[in-house]
Amino acid sequence: MTYDLFSIGSHKPGEVAVKEAPQGLELPEFLHLLPMMELNTYPNITSTICVDEHVSRQAVLRAENGDKILALFALKTCEVDMENLLPSDFFPVGVAAQILEVKGEAPEPMRVLVQGLCRISFSQILTGGIIPLVKIVPQVELSTEDYSTLRPMILEAKRLFAELLKFVPGIPVDVFKLNTLLDSEPVLLADLLMASIPLNHQAKAEYLLIAGLKHRYLKLLEHLTLELSNRQAGRAITQRIEACLDKKHREMHLREQIKAIQAELGEGDEPGSQAARDFEKKLEAIELPEEARTAATREIDRLSAMPPQSMECGVITNYLEWLSELPWKEETVATSDLKEAKAILDRDHYGLDKVKRRILEFLAVFQLTQGTAKTPILCLTGPPGVGKTSLGKSIAECLGRKFVRLSLGGLRDEAEIRGHRRAYVGARPGRVIAGLKKAGVRNPVVLLDELDKMATGPGGDPGAALLEALDPEQNSNFTDHFLELPFDLSKVLFILTANVLEEVPPPLRDRLEIIEVEGYSTEEKVEIAMRHLWPKELLRHGLDEGELNIKKEELAHLISSHTWEAGCRELTRNLSALVRSRSMAKALGEDFASEIDRSEFISILGPPLRRAEMLSSEPASGVVTGLAWTAGGGDIMLMEAVGMPGKGKLSLTGQLGDVMKESAQAAISYVRSKARDWGLDENWFKNHDIHVHLPQGAIPKDGPSAGVGLATAIVSLVGNRKVKPNLAMTGEISLRGLVLPVGGLREKLLAAKRAGIKNVLIPTRNLEDLKNLPRDVLKGLEITPVDTLDKVLTLALMEEKETPIGH
């Protein structure tokens, strides 16, 4: 709620009105409570209150239709629970006020003209209804017998208030009333002055607590003196600033006169002319586009005619520096030797054959067209730690171009891409233009990292700003807000990286050529560690090559026991810890073994990960192992179902997303429709509740590929048939019992291998995906295609039943 001292009805706006309270008015025992953030209503003073909260509006309307009296009490703070008000939330003394007039209908604020009656306190708040009531206790008003002793304080208060009016002419007060109240109403005079002074709500609420008239005037004099002192100091500061500005204006005028005299005599330089000439020489040596040269000439002319002390002088200088340092025409002479490019890719990255082939195809087109073809926008997508960023560096090396990496993670402002307009203080170009300046050429390889981590914020959508920069049809005339000139980005090779492609906005994703960088198998990680990671860690920790060794068998054991990832980052950290232990021994001058043994893993790295131990080696009913795809690669996902007496309710827990919940609903609907065909008790569903839980509840889970596993767990539970151990499955289920294809098959199969699972059921329509998978991914797995849930149940469930649960 907001309050003012303006009156409505017959009162003039901005006037504090004084009106005598009705004689002999008896207050009810209970009044409707109106909580106020600022209480500026005192006895016998009318003011206008603006009310917008629903409960407060209802309190006003209820009072207007009843006794027309409200209890106004000031809140101590705005951070209170308006639905559960406590006496401690209010200042203890408020004002009983009579409603004179009400205007305004929802949704507009309600304007209520009230007249203060008397000071009141309350003993309790009744919150049984929507509108709170308070049991009030009227406060006895003060006697004026000691008026003669108060007269000096009253005259001083009036004098100070008259002085204050000179500094704050907008104070709403009737000065004539002050003179008439001097002798007749000293109590009302104090209240009227207090209501007219611009003070904070706490000071005005605390004034109501003061009982003695002398103490009230002492507090009033204190506030008047302090406010007048502040106003006088403020005016003195303003006058000094104005005098300073006048002095600067005179100095500027004199400089202009000196400038005219020197020009007449042919002496001296114009202010700023030296800097302008320097830029002019610098830009003459640069090959600029015509539009850029026109803009530079215009700014140089402005700079030469501008005083050096002008703020605009710095803005122009910064702009000209950017124009002179950008690579408008400079290019790197690119190379495109395919054999050398293949050697570089094989040297820097093991595996990733599909990715390398696509990069070599791009380089082949570049070689045949001699760089005249429109450059595609490549997007490398895959789990963390699989080498997306390092692939960008290798592509730059293959082409012989400079490499620039720009991180987009956490970007929430469009100006970070398109630049800030020069009207803002500290304006600068966007990251794309700044990256080209850093590279010094207009045809570098620019890696835009973490594309899926951008977000829309108050500054706009940075993803939308990237559309022009990444569109080959438009980026030859990319306009940065700071430069306000078109810049040719068509020579830039943009490479983007993302973990989750679905997080990239569809219009932006439509402009990208997607290259999936998939996770590594254990065999690939062993080779990567032996060729790249281990030598790098030895060098980084001060050990010579051959001074410390590790066998491939030990690496494979390390990967299976202490890592659970699609990439190699956790593996790199573990190798670093192993090498670091030997580096410390070498630094201390101690002897150390030259070979790492698996027996040291626990003492150095800690206990092994126990993700696979979640899987039961014994068959059980209602428990199925599923396979999931995550942003970090593949993972196993247990699905547990239990039954209990109930009325057919389905409970789903484990932080499941909407798609997975719908998959569970589809699964149970199909199972119930086929209960008779599968020999299940149809009445079981009416008399029992089912609880489906996916462990690791702190991790969000979503997607349709758990549908087959959920249906199998429910059939296993209801039919009391155990699920075969060492078996995992993935697939979406339809209401007709069909097993539909899923994505991320490679990562899911790798997760099964990490967990030691041998048998995997996949949708029949995913068989084509197996043809593109390397042999080391499929090695050791028995993969069975399924097209219906009936076939899944035949392969997954054991024939014998266990003791019924929930029957």
Structure description:
By secondary structure, the chain is of the alpha/beta class. The chain is 41% helix and 18% strand. It contains 27 helices and 28 strands. Strands 20-21-19-18-23-26-27 form a seven-stranded mixed β-sheet. A hairpin with a 6-residue loop joins strand 12 and strand 13 (486-487). Helix 23 crosses helix 27 (789-796). The longest helix is centred in the N-terminal third of the chain and has 53 residues, at 213-265. 36% of the residues are buried.
Secondary-structure map:
Blueprint (H helix, E strand, L loop, with lengths): L1 E3 L12 E2 L11 E7 L8 E7 L2 H11 L4 E6 L19 E10 L6 E17 L6 E6 L8 H21 L7 H10 L1 H11 L4 H7 L5 H53 L7 H12 L5 H15 L6 H15 L12 H11 L4 H17 L8 E4 L6 H12 L3 E5 L7 H4 L12 H9 L5 E5 L12 H9 L7 E2 L6 E2 L5 E6 L7 H4 L3 E4 L5 H19 L8 E2 L1 H11 L6 H19 L7 E2 L4 H5 L17 E8 L2 E13 L4 E4 L4 H16 L10 H4 E6 L13 H13 L1 E3 L3 E3 L2 E2 L5 E2 L4 H10 L4 E5 L3 H4 L4 H4 L3 E5 L2 H8 E5 L6
Helix pairs in contact: 2-6, 3-4, 4-6, 7-8, 7-9, 8-9, 10-11, 10-12, 17-18, 17-19, 21-23, 23-27
